[in-house]
Amino acid sequence: MNFEIDSIFVERGCADTPLATRVIRAAATRVPIVHIDDARELAKPDPNARDPFGAGKRRMIIARRKTPFLMACPAGSSRFACCGYLVLTLASNCPMDCSYCFLQEYLADNPAFQVYANFTDSFDELDRLIRSAPDKHFRVGTGELADSLAFDSMTGMSRDLIEFFSTRENLTLEFKTKTDEIENLLATDPRGRVLVSWSLSTDAVFRSSEHRTAPPSARIKAARVVLDAGYRVAFHFDPLIAYENAQRDYVELIDELLDTISPKNISFISMGGLRMTPGLRTVARRRFANDPMLCGEEVMAPDGRYRTFTPLRLKLFSTLAERFRNCGAEIPAYLCMEPAAIHERVFGTVPPRPATIGERLASS
């Protein structure tokens, strides 16, 4: 995929790093390269832009990260039946522009696309983690605050990550993406320790809401290719959106997936309903005023988020869960950011503890 960038800013001390060298070489003469002393001001929104958040996505900054890379998933909470996911923050923001994306609120004050030149420092944090718990297996992903593979053709970051994770038996790396940018993955041996997951939506949601992403069919085809190259694959149906004919469309999407990839080769699936804080709902509807997917039947939930009316999202969860149950192989499944009571109604069981499900998903 080709994402448009207006300019690339390289912070002092980063120009000679392998990542900056790759990006500058890949950009060649197409994009202006500007060397700066301090990236902090440039990361802020442009007050003169009609859409400051959208404008920030077109500005790439290469800088050093001064805080830890590894953290618990921001979606995790004692209120929810969580999956025990750990996050590596190696970049911030995303060149794609989904109308429902939480980054519109979460990164409103720092919307520039930032990639961290010292990302390999995160390897020390990961080694400390596995030394602290040598008997555990951890699933670690890079796709929370940025798509894992967007711009990978420029940064080459995936190759360094795969090389590191392929030698750590109790770590599983998850690349989460909405792209079909898999060329670097095909040139690297994951040794069974790297999982690539795709967020999947129906064509209706893709056309209405998922701007500059790869079409769902292209994502599924890319998953087939990396599976054949030795990677594990998984899929996130999140957010599920309850529009007219949604149940029919999601079942057709699942059928397309299962026609392409055998159920026995799917490591897990996750599902999550559309949810928005009041702030996110306001900014999303302002930036995407013509998107009907943002105007469904919603209620304010106890956690302070607007969520699809419970009977509607339960129906979608149950429809998808039943289709996967009847596919001929058991596929591990979980709900993202849903209370335990919803999990019980969909799956008929009490959800396992986050640490337990996290280890299961990492080693499945």
List the helices and strands and how they pair.
Blueprint: E1 7-11, H1 18-27, E2 33-36, H2 40-43, H3 52-56, E3 59-63, E4 70-72, E5 86-88, E6 91-92, E7 97-98, H4 103-106, E8 113-116, H5 122-132, E9 138-141, H6 152-155, H7 157-165, E10 171-177, H8 183-186, E11 194-199, H9 203-209, E12 210-211, H10 216-228, E13 232-240, H11 246-260, E14 266-273, E15 275-276, H12 278-287, E16 298-300, E17 306-308, H13 310-325, E18 333-335, H14 340-347, H15 354-363
Parallel strand pairs: 1-2, 1-3, 3-8, 5-9, 9-10, 10-11, 11-13, 13-14, 14-18
Antiparallel strand pairs: 4-5, 6-8, 7-12, 15-17, 16-17
Helix pairs in contact: 10-11, 11-13, 13-14
Molecular structure report:
This protein is an alpha/beta fold. It has a single domain, classed as pyruvate-formate lyase- activating enzyme, CATH 3.80.30.30. 36% of the residues lie in helices and 21% in strands. It is built from 15 helices and 18 strands. The strands form four sheets. It has an eight-stranded mixed beta sheet. Helix 1 links the parallel strand 1 and strand 2. Helix 10 packs parallel to helix 11 and helix 11 runs parallel beside helix 13. The protein is globular and about 55 Å long. The protein starts with 6 loop residues before the first strand and ends with a helix. About 2% of the residues have low confidence.
Keywords summarizing the entry:
single chain, 364 residues, alpha/beta, pyruvate-formate lyase- activating enzyme, eight-stranded mixed sheet, five-stranded mixed sheet, 36% helix, globular
On the 0 to 100 scale, the average pLDDT is 92
Based on the structure, what is the oligomeric state of the protein chains?
single chain
State the end-to-end distance. Answer: 30 Å
The low-pLDDT segments are 76-81
The helix tally amounts to 15
The largest sheet has its strands arranged as 4-5-9-10-11-13-14-18
Estimate what percentage of residues fall within beta strands.
15-25%
